[in-house]
Proline--tRNA ligase
Amino acid sequence: MKQSQLFTKTTKETPKDETSFNAQILIRAGFIDKVGAGMYNFLPLGLRVLNKINNIVREEMATVSGQEVLMTALTPKEVWQATDRWDNFDVLFKLTGNDDKEYALGATHEEIVTPLAKKFLCSYKEMPKSIFQIQVKFRNEKRAKAGLLRGREFIMKDMYSFHTDQADLDEYYETVKAAYFRIYERLGLKDLTYLTYSSGGAFSKFSHEFQTLTEAGEDHVYICPDCQVAVNREIIAEHNFCPVCKRADLTEAKAIEVGNIFKLGTKFSSAFDMKYMDQNGDSQEVIMGCYGMGPSRIMGTIVEVFNDERGIIWPESIAPFKIHLLSLKENKAATAIYQELINNNIEVLFDDREDVGAGAKFADADLIGCPYRLVVSSKTLERGGVELKARTSDQMEIIPLDQIINQFKR
Amino acid sequence: MKQSQLFTKTTKETPKDETSFNAQILIRAGFIDKVGAGMYNFLPLGLRVLNKINNIVREEMATVSGQEVLMTALTPKEVWQATDRWDNFDVLFKLTGNDDKEYALGATHEEIVTPLAKKFLCSYKEMPKSIFQIQVKFRNEKRAKAGLLRGREFIMKDMYSFHTDQADLDEYYETVKAAYFRIYERLGLKDLTYLTYSSGGAFSKFSHEFQTLTEAGEDHVYICPDCQVAVNREIIAEHNFCPVCKRADLTEAKAIEVGNIFKLGTKFSSAFDMKYMDQNGDSQEVIMGCYGMGPSRIMGTIVEVFNDERGIIWPESIAPFKIHLLSLKENKAATAIYQELINNNIEVLFDDREDVGAGAKFADADLIGCPYRLVVSSKTLERGGVELKARTSDQMEIIPLDQIINQFKR
């Protein structure tokens, strides 16, 4: 992509109505645009990042046999009444249609997925099954001041699994847990992300959150220094020791919840009378699990974790482009390099702008945060190549023109 | 994908609460699920088709320099008041947030995109620009009985372009028109789809719809037998002749609107005071165009157009799978073929179900409508291969086992 053609441009000004760091810097760099509290447009650079996160999530859900669907965002009042959540789930946006029926905007989809799965999963032979979607969700939050960390409208991956018995759910739950850690590893977040024990409800002792440690977090967790597990604030009074090694000297830390998984048991199958026929021809209640993860919140988390005073530092797996190619008044030579990178399917943002000075181009590259910066100038060409600098390093080196592709091709 | 693992199964029963053919057959085949009037879940097979349509649209929008974004579905009341549409656009779903602010669910996005573009497009040097999104849209329809053809919640591609003058918009508009016809060609709809002249508003004599002829259509158009253009009902009283060749004997036909493009002029830039600096340093109003297309409606249209008494007949470009491979009690041989197809990146749905008879498998293949059916049975293996039948034909032929990949690889 040529930067001269890019829809957005960067700005040095911090947006006045935005208090969260992740939103401030993403707005300044042209990744997102604020429509209102907790409501953001994803702009071309931002949507590229979001789609890359979505695709990593999608690939890992496929490894645990998740089948992708897309459920409605409009959900009828009746299904929420069936689970007693119409009046008891305070973040539901509610509205009335021209048909005088009432609807909620989907904040989560147990109430839609259970009646749906009931239509297809009738026999023990048809389970286990697992379906997921990556979808816009809505939560009528009173307080939405954390940028992408707490949206009134946000992107969520929600998966739901259906099992004949608890042992099968327990086994599947562990495979999803492992898939979640693979996702955090691919996103560069694994070392900072703690499996966090939280309250389980009627059907299991614990549920689990995945909490990424950062001062920007709104959550408080109590971490075990040995096990990379934590206990959340909700249950710390009762469980003030590490659930794995039993150490009692847990340390408080701030964190962002980047995922949560939950054994639902028969809570929803019971509400919707979802039963299956077992091997003996007897009718049994279906056992369910649910597995949430917010790609837009993860995008905000990554920005909070990976940055410096000059801008964002994207992990390569989700960077909008791998390379930011800067032409300093050498557009002819730079265009040839740009074309060669494109021809080799290497993602590159090409700063070909002729009316922008070197300082502004360097500042933009740091702010936008692509992993590698390539500079083409008369000086680098005299030295026979281009200047390469990783966003994470201050070291620069000259790469000969005929070595550029080799440098970046896997 | 193994059919034994597929989340859905087909049904012979026509859903009772569904009067539209496209929804009936898509529900029976397991592509979609009805949540309420004009509200459908996309199931694994249906989402595969929808995503393929989306990707064709996305590719063609890229050819006209469209940059993809994702705007919010929640839109503040103020922006609709600025264009006088809060009280005058009867399909808006309206709701109130916990912040006591009022919102509409996005039915179209001129009111969001114009203030957004105003932030980035300030100079003649920064135009033309064009941005689009593929997004869930909401319309509070009183009557939503046409399945995917008229959703209260549906998928829409909406693109908006920004220009310094009318001539630039006029030129761009024609390139988008051509891109639309490339999309219909790739979807197999081009021969049936008529460029249809409709009312233009203050800034141009006509806007244009793309109308696909079918008895299932809710629209009436008046077609020229020579020019593959039409006039819509709205303007036929004034323009009762072909806009191209001037023939007056137009023929009435029923059709589905599968796209529409519109020269907005300064209607929205004026409402939001979106101006740019021209070459002389003078402030000028931005000229806009908008370009809509509904991938979910297109999916319904294709089902209405391409079917027979046995089921759907998907065009290869958007079929959920290219091949439906049926094992008739020969799962070992069929699994080897399945694996080889997978290894060669050929999309295949493998009916490996052991408790389903041949008749039901054939019926499912016809109902689901993949372009090619491959049958593996003791008979076909005795004849040295598999039986190939195209969904569009009654002819069958035996393909030797070692020729299967060659047959399908491009």
Remarks:
- Chain A has a mean pLDDT of 96.
